[in-house]
Amino acid sequence: MWGAISGPCTLDGACVQSPNYPQYYSNSQACTIEINAANAAPIVVEYFNVESYFDYLLVDGWKTFSGRRRRPSGFTPSSSIFWSSDFSVTRRGWRLCEPDRRLLEEAPAPDEPAFLI
């Protein structure tokens, strides 16, 4: 689902990550990750720890994720993800992955029972 990346964020297999992950990201960084909408799926968060309020991910131009607890797990992006860090405190950052497509294909539809009787 990850498309073109502009800036210092990186693609690692089925995951995208903040600059320098798993080490601390730097001050005053920004990058944009385009989303291949045809392959969009709920985000799996492997790690997320950024400075609250001042360092953030902006998904689809309106949904903001910041801090340690406010993470984009389960959110399905449709257009882009923008990363921004301010001029002071830094942390380890984030690593977001695509879900295992086999699990998505095997999941029951919402109106199907998840178990057999």
From TrEMBL:
Keywords associated with the record: Disulfide bond
Pfam families registered for this protein in UniProt: CUB
Superkingdom to which the source organism belongs: Eukaryota
Keyword Transport: no
Translocase keyword on record: no
SUPFAM superfamilies: Spermadhesin, CUB domain (SSF49854)
CDD domains xref list: CUB
Name this protein carries in UniProt: CUB domain-containing protein
InterPro entries associated with the record: CUB_dom, Sperma_CUB_dom_sf
